Amino acid sequence: MACAEIILSIIAKGVLDKIASLTFSEISMVRGVNKEMEKFKKTLSSIKAVLSDAEEQQVKNHTVQDWLEKLKDVVYDVDDVLDEISTEVLRQKVETHGSILKQVDNFFSHSNPVAFSFKISRKIKDIRERLDDIVLERRNFHFKEQVVDAQVQNKVREQSHSFMRESDVIGRDYDKDKIVELLLSSSDHESLSVIPIVGLGGLGKTTLVKLVYNDERIVRNFELRLWVCVSQEFDLKKLLEKIIKSGTGANCGYLELDQLQTCLRDNLNAKKFLIILDDVWNDDPTKWIELRNLLSDGANGSKIIVTTRSTVVASIMGTTQSYNLKGLSNDECLSILVKFAFKEGDAKRYPKLVDIGKAIVTKCGGIPLAVRTLGCLLYMKIEEREWLYIKDNEIWKLEQKENDILPALRLSYEQMPSYLKQCFVYCSIFPKDCEIGRVQLITLWMAQGFLLPNGSRQQLEDIGNQYFNELLSRSFFHEVNEKFDAEVLMCKMHNLVHDLAQLMASTEYLNVDFNSRLVSERVRHVSFIEYDLYEKEFPMPMLNAKKLRSFSFSYQVGPISKSFLYTLILHFRCLRVLDMGGAEFEELPSFIGKLKHLRYLNLSWNRSLKVLPNSICKLLNLRTLHLYGCEQLRELPRDIGKLISLRHLYLTSQSIGLPEKMFEGLTSLRYLWFQRCNRLVSLSEGIQHLTSIRRLRMEECHSLASLPSGIKHLTALEKFWITDCQELNLLEGEDMKGLKSLQSLAIVGLPKLVALPQGLQQSAATLQYLTIQNCQGLKTLPKWLEDLTSLRRLYIRNCPTLMCLPQGVHRLTALQQLSIRGCPQLSVRCERETGEDWPNISHILEIYLDSVKIK
C-alpha cells in the first residue's frame, strides 16, 4: 500500500470518526447537516473499501491516479468543514458559557448564526456535488472491494533495547583500533592532519567514529574534542556556530561571521584538538579551504576526522590516505540480526528461523543499518512464513544501486500499520541530520490529527508516546538523547531513513526555497529551506498551495519582512501548523486570529517580539503555543485564558505577573514551561485550576520567591522540574503534599534550599526519579527519603555541604542507579567497601562517584 493511499485512507477514517461523533450542538448549527453527513458517511465508507485496489490500478492508469487525487481533495474539504462547525461551537461556548467570561463582550466578532449556517451549507452543497461526480466516475474503473489496513500486530521492543548502545556494536573492534592508531601514531610536531573515513550509507561510519571519539586513549591525548554534523549544507557561518557550540555549549547565531571566526580561533588557540566533521557532502575545494584555514590555530598534533560517502570529498579534504570502511561479514550481520530479532537466548530455540536469517542477511550487503532494521521488524516473530516473507519479498528485485539498503528499509516501512506510516512520513519535513524533539514531534502529529484514540480514555500525549516508541523500536530513529529520568528528549533520523520518508511522502510534502518554480495546489505540508530571509518577499509560486496545512522554517532564519509575514498568515487559512521558530519580527499581526484551524504555533527564539495581539486568543483550536526564547515579550494577552484547547504552553517573557484568572480558562493544559521569566515574581493561586497538568517546568525564573499554595491541587502532575531559580525557597508557603502522581522531580540550582519539602512524602508510592543538583545550602537529606519505595534513580550533584545519606536508604529496594558528583564528603562515605555508607547502598545495581562507575 503506497503512501498516497495510506494518507487518504487515514484521512477518510478520521473524517468518518468525526461524523460519527458529531454532537447535538454541531448538528443543530447548520440546517440539514445531519442528513448530509449521513450521506457523506455512507459514500466515504463505500469508497474506502476500494482504495487498495485503486492504488494498485493507478500505477498503470493515470486516470485512476487523478481520481484518487480528486477524492483526497474532497475528503480534506469535508474535514475542514467539520472543523469549522466544531470551532463555531467552541466559540459560542467561550462567549456564553466559558469559565472565564460570565458576560458577552466584544472580543469575538459578532457571528451571525444565519450567515454562518448559509456559508457552511453552501460549502457542503459544493462538496456534495463534487463527491457525487467522483462516485459516478468510480463506475468506470470496476474497483474491487478489499479489506483496508489490516492491522499489523505490533510487538514493541522494551525501551531498554529500542536503540543502539555501544554494547550493541558488532564487528568494528578492528576498525576502531586502527583509527585510534592513526590518530595517536603521528608526531606532535606535525601540523593539522585530516583523516577521511569513506563508506556507503548505513555502514556505521558515525557509530565507529563515536567509539573512537569516546575511547579513553583519545580522551587522554586530546585537550579538546569537538563533534559537528555537517550534512549537505556546507555553510561556513553555520559550521562555525556548530563548532563553537560543540566546544562551549553557547548558542552564537546572533554573531556576525567575523565575530564567529575570532571566537573560534580563540577557543582553538594552542590547544591540541580532535574535530569530527560527520557526514560531509561538499565537493567544492574553495569552501573547504576557507574552513580549514580557520581551524589551523591549534597545537601541533591536532586532528580532524571526516566521514563521507564520497571518495571525491575524501580526496579534497584528506591529508592522509582514506580509511575505506568495509561491510560486515555475513556472520557478523547474522549476529546483529539475532541480537535484534530475538530476546536474549531465544535464538537457540528457533534454528530454522536462524537458517532463514542467514539468507536474509546476504541480501543486505554487509550494511549494519539494513540488518538492524530488519531485525527490529522480525522481533518476536516466530512463524516461518513471516521470515520467508522477508526473504522472498519482491522489493528486493526493485532497481537499486550497488549495496543500496532502501529495499531493506522499505520492507520495514511496508510492515508498519498505516497510522504509523503517516507519522513516519511527516518526519520528512525536518532537515537531514537535525535533532528532533520527541515532545515537539508528538505535538505536531497531534496538530495534524494523526493520533488516533483507541476507544479508551487514553491521553493524546500517551498515544503519541506509543507511536514514537514504536518507530524507535523499529530503528527509524537513532542517536537518542535521554534525560535523567530515562525519557527520550531528542533523536535523529539516519540520512537513508530520511530518504525513505521523503520517497514515501508523495506530492503532499515539499521542501521549498526561493528557486522553487512549481508548487502544486495539492501540496499540504511545506518546509522552507532557506537561511536568510532579510528583506525578501514571500515566493509567489507557493501561493498556489492555498490549502496548506503545515508551514515551517527549517532553520533559524532571523529577521523577516512584514510583507513576508503578512502574506504567509493572510493567504493560508487552512493551516494546522505554523512553525516560525527562529524568525524575528516585532509584532504578530492581529489577523492571526483568522487562522481558525490552527493547532500549533511556534514563535520561539524571536528576540524582537515585544507584544502579542489579543486576537491570538481567538485561536480556539490551538493546542501548542511556543514562546520560549522570546526575551523581549512584555506580557501575555489579557484574554489568553480563552484558549480553552491549549495543552502545551512554553513561555519566556518580561512580565512581572500573569494575566488575572489566566489559569481558570486553561484547564486543558498538560505541559507548562516557564523559561527565563526573569521578572516573574509570583504565580497566581489560580494554578489550582490546572487539574489536568502533567508536566511543570520552571527554569531561570530568578525573581520567583515561592510557589503558590494552589500547587497542592495539581494531583495529575507527573513531572516537576525546577532549575536555576535563585530566590526560590521551597519551604515558604504550602508544600507539595498534594502531588500524588509525581514520578520525576528535578531540583537544580536553588541556593536557598536548605531542606526538601516535607510534603514530598505524599509522593512516596509514585516518585521514581529524583535529581538534586547545585544546591550549596543543602546539608542533610530527610529521613523520609527512605520511604520512597518506587525510587529508581537518585542523582546528587554539586551539593558540597551534604554530609551523608539517610541510614534507611537500604530500604530503597527499587533503586537501580545512584550517582553522586561534586559532594566530597558524601563521596568518601560511599566508597566501595571502605565508606561508612557503603553497607546501606551496596544493593544498588549501578553506582557512580564523580562520574566513575564503582559498581
TrEMBL record:
Coiled-coil features, chain-numbered ranges: none
Domain R13L1/DRL21-like LRR repeat region: 764-823
Keywords recorded for this protein, A-Z: ATP-binding, Leucine-rich repeat, Nucleotide-binding, Plant defense, Repeat
Pfam families membership: LRR_14 (PF23598), LRR_R13L1-DRL21 (PF25019), NB-ARC (PF00931), Rx_N (PF18052), WHD_DRP (PF23559)
Transmembrane segments: none
Residues of the NB-ARC domain: 173-344
Protein name: Uncharacterized protein
Organism, as annotated: Liquidambar formosana (Formosan gum)
Highest classification ranks of the organism: Eukaryota, Viridiplantae, Streptophyta, Embryophyta, Tracheophyta
